[in-house]
Amino acid sequence: MSRPQCSRCLRPLTHCLCPLIPSLDSRTRVLLLQHPSEVNHALNTARLAALGLMNAHLVVGEVFEDLPALLNVPGYRARLLFPAEDAQPLQAYTPSDEPLLLVVPDGTWRKARKLLHLNPLLAALPRVTLAEGAVSRYRLRKAPGPGALSTVEAIVQALQALETPTSFEPLLRPFEALIEGQIAAMGDEVFQKNHGPG
């Protein structure tokens, strides 16, 4: 028998994160393209980001038939947040800059690359990247490499780079509560054994 679930954050009602989810405005529009395997993931950080940003849109799928329409948002320049040798580091807007439509694939690195492979229009977008050296707060899994962040962390870092001095840190509150809840559920001993410094 499944536990009653919050229809907004999709967490069990006893662990609803909605009171922690902010409602932040941003000059940047964020388009999250989520691989279907992430939808029921316990730490669905793309959903948290979409709920906490007024100018964000979450679409779930593998092949996005309506991608041309999703990318053609008047007044925005579409950029893919994904590493590449020619990716441009994100920099703060100048007053005259047209804001970005920041396209963020959500999934494991393998699944995110698959989304690009299945959607050539997505793969063809100019790419942007985050500053090097970011450290994830996601203490429940080993990062695949330096600078590997969860989706919500990457979005926060991107928006802070683009829209400084505005702070998007409140977006991380439900994410951190989620992690604390997972650690509490597994118990400190299990957490230290599996995820502690080692």
From TrEMBL:
The keyword Transmembrane does not apply. Keywords: S-adenosyl-L-methionine, Transferase, tRNA processing. Residues 2-187 form the DTW domain. Its EC number is 2.5.1.25. SMART domains: DTW. One of its GO terms (biological process) is tRNA processing. It comes from the Bacteria. InterPro entries: DTW, DTWD2/TAPT. GO terms for molecular function: tRNA-uridine aminocarboxypropyltransferase activity. It holds the Pfam family DTW. Belongs to the TDD superfamily. DTWD2 family. This is tRNA-uridine aminocarboxypropyltransferase. The lineage of its organism: Bacteria, Pseudomonadati, Pseudomonadota, Gammaproteobacteria, Pseudomonadales.
